[in-house]
UniProtKB/TrEMBL annotation:
InterPro entries: MetI-like (IPR000515), MetI-like_sf (IPR035906). The keyword Transport applies. This is Carbohydrate ABC transporter permease. It is found in: Cell membrane; Membrane. Belongs to the binding-protein-dependent transport system permease family. The chain crosses the membrane at residues 25-42, 90-112, 118-138, 171-194, 215-237, 243-264, 276-297. Residues 86-297 form the ABC transmembrane type-1 domain. Its main location: membrane. It comes from the Archaea.
């Protein structure tokens, strides 16, 4: 190899190295910009929640407060005012999430692993239910739970025994509404998962004489853990953050059964103006349960999404 050829090869390698370095620099710059874009509102909300009212007006929103402007009082106030709503939200969101996921799993199992007439029309109805917007059912929903099935009046003896307000009948109605509204999307997610499931174990169980119920309990259900993680996270987030149904069925944040989103909508509002620090601390406090759910089921969620 001549000296000229060697020099040309070295120049080509140097050019490729420079181009690769520029590509990486550009890639990292774009990634850092995106990270900053998505984290900036969270950072601003977090530092604002630790500021006094005076510090909120005298400092830039994304800058941390100084020693004189730092306080934990906003978090304490937000926790005191939202504690009732956090408990109520967990009371109606947890069973609604689990029941809708379980019913969706069983419905999807019946639509994929069992042959019977009427599957296609029922599946079409379920898929159509996914596309019904919340706004379209607000009036019928309100009439059903207030006129035809007033759970607060029908179950008066339950509230009397428990010593709680009959407003919790409306909270039960809210939970049932979310179960009914969540079954279509849960069924669709589980159906996609079951369509790709290896049926060898199911066929083996059938040959051994296992019934449809036993196959579901002992084969299908244990294999559904990743998809259950996906559905539980999705449903819990949707139900926990719901405000529209809660506003229609419970209407007032002063109700003892009001969920946390309803109370949060009026938190920090006064005639003197908005208490931004209190509202930010309340918003972050309200978001904590969904964040905990993501952390607990994150590995199963990734596995379920990948499958």
């Amino acid at each position: 190899m001549t000296d000229a050829t060697t020099t040309q090869t070295e120049q080509t390698e140097q050019t490729l190295t420079d181009q690769l370095s520029l590509y990486r620099v550009g890639l990292y710059a774009v990634l850092l910009t995106l990270v900053g874009f998505f984290l900036a509102p969270i950072e601003a909300g977090l530092v604002t929640s630790f500021k006094t009212t005076t510090a909120v007006t005298e400092t830039v929103s994304y800058m941390p407060p100084g020693p004189e402007g730092f306080t934990l009082q906003k978090w304490e106030t937000a926790f005191d005012q939202l504690l009732r709503g956090l408990i109520n939200s967990f009371v109606f969101a947890a069973p609604a999430t689990v029941i809708s996921a379980l019913l969706g799993s069983m419905t999807a199992y019946g639509l994929t692993q069992i042959d019977w007439r009427g599957q296609i029309p029922l599946l079409a109805l379920l898929i159509a239910g996914i596309f019904i917007p919340y706004q379209a059912v607000l009036v019928p929903l309100s009439r059903i739970w207030s006129v035809y099935i007033p759970l607060g009046d029908l179950l008066w003896f339950v509230w009397a025994i428990l010593g709680i307000s009959d407003d919790y009948g409306r909270l039960m109605a809210l939970s049932i509404s979310h179960i009914a509204y969540g079954i279509p999307i849960c069924t669709l997610l589980f159906r996609s998962y079951y369509k790709s499931m290896d049926i060898d174990m199911i066929e083996a169980a059938r040959l051994d004489g296992a019934s449809v119920r036993k196959i579901y309990q002992r084969v299908v259900l244990p294999l559904s853990t990743p998809m259950f993680a996906v559905v539980l996270i999705y449903q819990f987030t949707q139900i926990w953050n719901d405000l529209l149904f809660a506003l229609i069925l419970l209407s007032s944040s002063s109700s003892p059964a009001a969920p946390v989103t309803l109370i949060l909508s009026g938190l920090g509002v006064a005639q003197q103006g908005l208490d931004f620090a209190l509202r930010m601390s309340g918003a972050l406090l309200t978001a904590l349960p969904t964040l905990i759910i993501y952390i607990l089921f994150g590995e199963e969620f990734a596995e379920g999404v990948a499958s």
